[in-house]
């Protein structure tokens, strides 16, 4: 085995370095990928190549920054915006991406290809023509097949195409990594896709310096995530609509960006429910510190996500010492293993969701109990210092068994 492992990451990458290079102040979604990158940089036995769709200008580009080689590719025709490219890829097929990624990777000649997330048509499909050619590792980011079926006919078609692609990748890529707190998901994955090699690779969690218990409260409830239906924002708004009958001065803070058209729908829903005075939209925040500073001013964190692995924002709220309310989906119930440290409402039940929020707001003893049990739990589970070693171990094990 070579002393230096040449690794390709196939992912969606935004970071401050690329923002500076392209001279664009682009919002950085999926911040954990740039955090993964920072943790991998010190590994002097890895030559890292990041293959990613070019969300900056949708052109092919090769860039080397801080000893990391970025290979950005054009991923759609340009007839639609980046935001609507999924529709084009679902309708026209993503074979162009498969071929383009194959050509990029063949030119690199890596020892291993690491795909982050199997559910994204605009880059995940790129691994299809690499299976069996190179050793592969797929990092699980959640099952799109567990998401609710969209009612819109076009979105439903895209959804089905994403499921087809996700299923193909998991059936054929035999090495899969999971966050340590996704034990339930690992068991379910084994049932759905038996005879795979499963590895532990924790997701980086931004650990706040701030202690929310000593911050003055301006809000009762906070939501921070991308503002989408699947993150449960509508459920939270309806729950606030229920709570306002008993708590007319309740205030909820919504942190996060989203599609302009969907944000308009959400604000119209708020207007229809006549709770405009009870909900504040803070929008996208550039840094995690900005998010934490705002979130710490709230009494409860609510993320009623419809499907997920273990959302990093829940882990961050646990570190921040804000009591958490969510739904029992994905790996989230595992957080309560051994001790109840987050409040889980009945899935997709806004009345149960409202009750959970209300119980915490009305009971300081319950809130404090959840906060300190959650903080102890997350400190036991998450340690960013272990991630580089986990990554290195997985790569070497896979390469050692590659025929």
From TrEMBL:
Superkingdom to which the source organism belongs: Bacteria
Name this polypeptide is given: Glycosyl transferase family 1 domain-containing protein
Organism whose genome encodes this protein: Bacteroides salyersiae CL02T12C01
One term of GO molecular function: glycosyltransferase activity
Ranges for domain Glycosyl transferase family: 214-376
Pfam families hit by this protein: Glycos_transf_1
SUPFAM superfamilies (UniProt xref): UDP-Glycosyltransferase/glycogen phosphorylase
């Amino acid at each position: 085995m070579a002393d230096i492992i040449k690794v390709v990451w196939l992912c969606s990458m935004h970071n401050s370095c690329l923002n500076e290079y392209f001279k664009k102040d682009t919002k950085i979604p999926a911040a954990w990928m740039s955090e993964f990158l920072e943790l991998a940089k010190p590994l002097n036995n890895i030559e890292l190549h990041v293959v990613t769709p070019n969300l900056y200008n949708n052109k092919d580009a090769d860039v080397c920054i801080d000893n990391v080689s970025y290979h950005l590719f054009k991923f759609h025709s340009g007839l639609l915006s980046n935001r609507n490219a999924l529709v084009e890829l679902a309708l026209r097929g993503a074979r162009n991406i498969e071929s383009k990624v194959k050509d990029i990777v063949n030119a690199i000649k890596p020892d291993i290809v690491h795909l982050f997330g199997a559910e994204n048509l605009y880059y995940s499909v790129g691994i299809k023509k690499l299976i069996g050619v190179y050793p592969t590792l797929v990092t699980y980011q959640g099952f799109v097949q567990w998401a609710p079926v969209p009612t819109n006919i076009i979105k439903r078609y895209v959804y089905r195409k994403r499921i087809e692609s996700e299923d193909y990748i998991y059936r054929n890529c035999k090495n899969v990594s999971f966050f340590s707190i996704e034990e339930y998901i690992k068991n379910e994955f084994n049932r759905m896709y038996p005879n795979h090699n499963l590895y532990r690779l924790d997701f980086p969690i931004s650990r706040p310096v701030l202690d929310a218990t000593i911050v003055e409260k301006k809000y009762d409830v906070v939501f921070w995530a991308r503002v989408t239906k699947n993150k449960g924002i509508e459920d939270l708004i309806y729950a606030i609509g229920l709570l306002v009958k008993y708590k007319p001065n309740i205030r909820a803070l919504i942190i996060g960006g989203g599609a302009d058209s969907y944000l308009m729908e959400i604000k119209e829903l708020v207007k229809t429910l006549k709770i405009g005075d009870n909900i504040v939209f803070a929008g996208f925040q550039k840094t995690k510190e900005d998010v934490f500073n705002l979130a710490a001013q709230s009494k409860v964190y609510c993320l009623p996500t419809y499907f997920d692995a273990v959302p990093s924002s829940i882990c961050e709220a646990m570190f921040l010492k804000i009591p958490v309310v969510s739904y029992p989906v994905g790996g989230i119930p595992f957080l309560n293993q051994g001790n109840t440290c987050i409040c889980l409402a009945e899935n997709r039940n806004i009345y149960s969701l409202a009750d959970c929020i209300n119980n915490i707001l009305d009971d300081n003893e319950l809130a404090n109990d959840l906060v300190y049990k959650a903080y102890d739990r997350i400190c036991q589970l998450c340690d960013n210092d272990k991630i580089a070693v986990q990554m290195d171990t997985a790569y070497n094990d896979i390469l050692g068994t590659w025929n």
